[in-house]
Design brief:
Elements: E1 13-17, H1 21-32, E2 36-41, E3 56-58, H2 68-84, H3 87-90, E4 94-95, E5 97-104, E6 123-130, E7 135-137, H4 140-155, E8 158-161, E9 164-169, E10 174-178, E11 183-186, E12 188-191, H5 197-200, E13 210-221, E14 230-237, E15 248-251, E16 257-266, H6 279-292, E17 301-313, E18 320-323, E19 330-334, H7 340-357, H8 379-400
Parallel strand pairs: 1-2, 1-12, 2-8, 5-14, 12-19
Antiparallel strand pairs: 3-7, 4-7, 5-6, 9-10, 10-11, 13-16, 13-17, 14-15, 15-16, 18-19
Helix pairs in contact: 1-4, 1-7, 2-7
The structure holds flavin-adenine dinucleotide.
GO molecular function: oxidoreductase activity
Pfam family, one: DAO
GO cellular component, one term: cytoplasm
Length: 401
Amino acid sequence: MDDNRSQDHQPKRVVVCGGGIIGVCTAYFLAKKGAAVTLIERSSIAGAASGKAGAFLALHMCDDGPLSSLARASFGLHCSLAKELDGPRSYGYRPLTTLTISMGESEVPSKSPILPPWVDGQVKPGEIIGTTENTAQIHLGLFTQSVLAKAVTDYGVEVLTAVVENVQVEEESVVVKVGGGGVIGGDAVVLALGPWTSKVLGLSSKFKVHGKKVHSVVLEPKDGDAITPHALFATYYPAQNMGPVDPDFFPRPTRDVYICGPSVEVEIPDRPELVFPDPESIEMLKRVAGIVSSYLTNDNVTIKSEEAGLMPCTDDELPIMGEVPGMKRCYVASGHGYWGILFGPASGVAMAELVLDGHASVVDLDCFGPTRFVIKVTISEYVVIARISLRFMHVRFIVQF
Ligand SMILES: Cc1cc2nc3c(=O)[nH]c(=O)nc-3n(C[C@H](O)[C@H](O)[C@H](O)COP(=O)(O)OP(=O)(O)OC[C@H]3O[C@@H](n4cnc5c(N)ncnc54)[C@H](O)[C@@H]3O)c2cc1C
């Protein structure tokens, strides 16, 4: 990636709103490319979904669809960032083997060469869907903090703790208004506010970002050394007449096992601290842990966390990245759904290129642009709408008199 700091005597001032993985990666690559960046976060860096995710990465699992090139470019960037930032040591970057399994209370334990010894419960093996060549993991909170630390020390990113309240686009600049009356000016602004992106700034007439609540537990087994780096994509068939549930297991180098599970679409609360887990979903995750492995039964683990995070999702399940329609120099990067951690670095590079160069070369952003949600009205539709409106006005006029 070019560093155009030397060509540009007056670096572009860019305000990035939101300190999740998307905002932090965008700030990092913008600053690395020579922009003067201020990052605004209301609570803590990676305090929302970006600190609660499983942080599983896959090169190939989005193939055959519009997300394929974003996933592939970003998997590669995660590998190079891991070298640049000493990922294995500083944020637990490591390749994994990935399997599918299914299980139920009535399943009999099976011996299979593909199952690691710690997966000794009522489990039916599926198949190997990822190898150490194409699947990996990171510790998310630590990753986001490492990237931001580098952005601050090496590239001068300023971090401000404040609530973004409004963005005004002017002739040649943007003005970001924050709580307490503060104002931050810039040449461009990037909104990376996760599920709060459309809600906060009243942008929901242009596009909508929803919030899906996903639950997670982190269990520390007494015998942590027995747990090998095998990610499990499980399908659980509860004994009662309930549909299947799909919990994912990600053992981490910190000798604990992260398990995430059921998701449900919810009203977006005012701030991340108000996202609470549902006790039944947490209990279900702990129960399936004990079914999968005798090392993960209640008696054999310490519970390190029970949480829920809001995954930012869109109507068509694709991220939104581009300039906001009708708001020059105001860009959006949100709605990354289930794969936001994987997509973080390539989204950051793409947004930095778009803001500073006018187009992204790392991935084609065409199918992610926010204009896809703008309702297009043809001339004949416009004439019909105008006729209906006139008729209503006429009826109202008669009623009034
Ligand atoms: C349980 C769970 C497991 C997941 N597992 C994986 C996985 O294994 N792999 C993967 O690739 N992805 C995974 N994801 C998805 C991934 O976590 C998300 O897509 C990603 O974190 C979204 O990042 P973001 O930066 O867009 O949003 P967020 O992390 O929500 O960040 C938005 C930030 O904006 C801030 N903010 C909001 N409003 C304001 C305001 N007005 N002023 C200032 N700041 C504001 C918030 O405080 C927050 O810090 C998972 C998600 C969940 C919930």
